[in-house]
Design brief:
Layout lengths: L26 H9 L2 H23 L4 H17 L1 H14 L3 E5 L2 H15 L3 E4 L3 H6 L1 H7 L3 E4 L2 H8 L16 H15 L11 H18 L2 E4 L3 E3 L4 E6 L3 H7 L3 E7 L3 E2 L2 H15 L7 E6 L9 E7 L3 H5 L15 H5 L1 H6 L10 H12 L4 H5 L9 H5 L6 H15 L2 E4 L2 E4 L6 H14 L2 H13 L13 H5 L11 H9 L7
Parallel strand pairs: 1-10, 2-3, 2-4, 4-7, 5-8, 7-10
Antiparallel strand pairs: 5-6, 6-9, 11-12
The protein binds iron/sulfur cluster.
């Protein structure tokens, strides 16, 4: 069958725009531009509302969903607490099964390892399974710099790659594109990189899928090296698991002679028993499917089938920094289902590109500042990219309290100053800006530490309440211009309590 493609013309390798760009504006500025794009807003609204409704129905069918959610949370927490032990066990299991394990402290090291492994095969192209970890490290760009072409094979990733675009959603990276736009991209670009789109291609989903299938098939059959991520890694057997809906992952994982998987260390689960929970919650939370269509599992190498060489690159890239934060570490429970994106009112309007990260939406707002630090404009602004409505927490299948982490990170930005990652070291810089906020906090601390002064101040505020302005002066004007200041009560609570409760309790 592969003979069909002998003598296929060699096409120029795909190019990849740097993502995030070297300088990305803060979230408010990026979001302001995005909300003006009515096509984008329409595409996002349609897509997120459709997925969100389907997910709600799929979850409602499961009578023990709350128990599954709690079990997922506990498994992840327990694993993260003993991650060192589970990773060592994983390494032993993978090695015993014929694989080779590599450890990468950051993105550069991961990219260097993968590039050298590909070069050692003598190949100059790879096919890729959809992988957030390799997007995070910018692997495609690193390979391109070394003359190695990386072809995305997930349908949505293919659309993004052909369009020289950037992903805007974890599960559906081309969610910002509608069918007409996809047809145009296929018709215009496919011939540049391989098999052209069929003549007279329309925007019917079946035709678009068939065009992608034909275009990708020649790449699957030619490729000698596959690159993947993994949804889970089972420590007790060294088994990796990829959960996908199209079957492209299965092709990449089984056809090439060499398979290289780049996986974040937090994707470890101790046992197969643990996997059982996530294989129930992930499909329903992400694609609203009762059971996942293609679940590929592999353990090292086998003589009869699949790749002859298997390499696992375990990626840290800020994860151990996040792990050391008692509040923030819960972000590492994430199984990348995207449910939080699909219910988020901010994501629905701003879209994924405004987050300046491969991880957009609520999970991106808490994960990116922890993995990258808050030293850049965009990362320092991400914890504020939320209304704290809590919808993300409600739908999260591993119960990550995203609003709690957002508030925690806001505190870090406001009080601790900028945090930058300098190699492995977290460096605190003195905070710039937020001076008014810090002054207000200092005044509040002084008053709350002096009950007598607080009482006097409250009584004074009550007696003069008719004189209070309805808007704040100076830098507070913008804030109060869009909000109603709460009225000061005629009688302070403490006095009311004293008068009505006769001094019972603690109000003094
Ligand atoms: S934070 Fe929760 S809801 Fe959001 S992608 Fe991760 S697991 Fe899914």
């Amino acid at each position: 069958m592969s003979g069909t493609f002998v003598g296929m013309p060699v096409f120029p390798p795909p190019t990849h725009p740097a993502f995030p760009p070297p300088t990305h504006p803060a979230f408010p500025a990026a979001a302001r531009n995005a909300v003006r794009d009515t096509t984008l807003r329409g595409n996002l609204r349609h897509a997120t509302h459709t997925i969100r409704a389907k997910r709600a129905n799929a979850v409602a069918e499961v009578s023990d969903w709350a128990e599954l959610r709690e079990a997922g949370k506990r498994i992840k927490d327990h694993t993260l607490r003993h991650l060192d032990r589970h990773l060592e066990q994983l390494e032993e299991s993978v090695t015993a099964a014929g694989g080779t394990v590599h450890w990468a402290v950051d993105a550069d090291e991961a990219n260097r390892i993968v590039t050298e492994l590909v070069k050692a095969t003598g190949e100059s192209e790879v096919v890729k399974v959809k992988s957030m970890a390799t997007q995070e490290t910018g692997l495609n760009e690193a390979l391109e710099a070394e003359g190695i072409a990386a072809y995305e094979t997930d349908l949505a990733e293919l659309i993004v790659q052909l369009g020289e675009d950037r992903p805007s959603h974890i599960l559906v990276p081309a969610i910002h594109r509608n069918r007409g736009e996809i047809r145009e991209i296929f018709a215009r670009e496919m011939s540049e990189w391989g098999r052209p789109a069929p003549e007279g291609l329309t925007d019917a989903p079946a035709e678009l899928a068939e065009a992608a299938r034909l275009h990708l098939r020649e790449k699957f059959l030619r490729a000698k090296v596959g690159v993947s991520g993994a949804n889970f890694m089972v420590a007790e057997t060294g088994t990796l698991v990829v959960v996908e809906s199209e079957g492209n992952g299965r092709m990449c994982l089984t056809l090439p002679e060499t398979l290289i998987s780049v996986v974040g260390i937090e994707k470890t689960v101790p046992t197969w028993r643990d996997l059982e929970v996530f294989l129930q919650t992930l499909p329903r939370s992400s694609t609203a499917e009762r059971m996942n269509p293609y679940t590929s599992m592999w353990t090292g190498t086998t003589d009869e089938d699949g790749p002859r060489n298997f390499h696992l690159v375990l990626l840290d890239n800020g994860r151990t920094d996040a792990l050391s934060d008692e509040v923030g570490r819960q972000a590492l429970r994430c199984i990348r289902c995207s449910a939080c994106l699909n219910v988020c009112p901010v994501y629905e309007r701003a879209g994924g590109h405004a987050y300046g990260s491969v991880y957009p939406g609520p999970i991106g707002a808490i994960l990116s500042p922890q993995l990258r630090g808050t030293g850049s404009e965009i990362d320092a602004s991400l914890p504020y990219a939320s209304s704290l409505c809590g919808a993300c927490y409600e739908v999260c299948p591993v119960a990550i309290d995203i609003p709690e982490v957002l508030v925690h990170l806001r505190e870090r930005v406001a009080q601790g100053g900028e945090v930058t990652r300098n190699g492995n070291k977290v460096v605190l810089k003195p905070a710039k800006g937020h001076a008014a906020e810090r002054a207000a906090m200092r005044a509040a601390r002084w008053a709350f530490a002096r009950p007598g002064a607080l009482r006097t101040g409250q009584r004074l505020a009550s007696r003069t309440r008719r004189l209070h302005p309805r808007t704040l002066p100076g830098p507070g004007r913008a804030w109060s211009g869009t909000r109603d200041l709460p009225p000061v009560p005629a009688e302070p609570f403490r006095d009311w309590w004293q008068r009505t409760q006769g001094g019972k309790g603690a109000a003094k």
